[in-house]
Amino acid sequence: KISPFLAARNHFPGTLDDFAGTLDDFTGTLDDFTGTLDDFTGSLDDFTGTLDDFTGTLDDFTGTLDDFTGTLDNFTGTLGDFTGTLDDFTGTLDHFTGTLDDLPGTLDDLPGTLDHFTGTLDDLPGAVEEFPGDVDDSKGALEREAAPN
User: Which positions ≥6 away from 131 have C-beta within 8 Å?
Assistant: First the structure.
């Protein structure tokens, strides 16, 4: 009968071969895992780059929003100015409407005003003829007053 030690010794080379095969499998698994980790690291690097690009795009968008906010502020001011101008125009229209409301009365008074003006124009030639005499009379009166008594 073979002793257990000798029996184990006979199996030992096979066990060592099995262990070596297992170590080879384990080494292959570690190599695969290392490759997977490298791929994962590369994916993380890609993600980091994408995140950096997104951050840059977000910064650009924030700048655009800031510009848009400034534009809206300017538009709000312009709209306020336009509202003031519109209010002024409304006041002008109200005044013009009042003037238009007064126009019929003014037009009714126009014939009398023109008759009076015509009468004044009719008197003008006589007044112009008398003017040199009136100037002479005024000059004589001023000279008499200035003369010693």
Answer: none
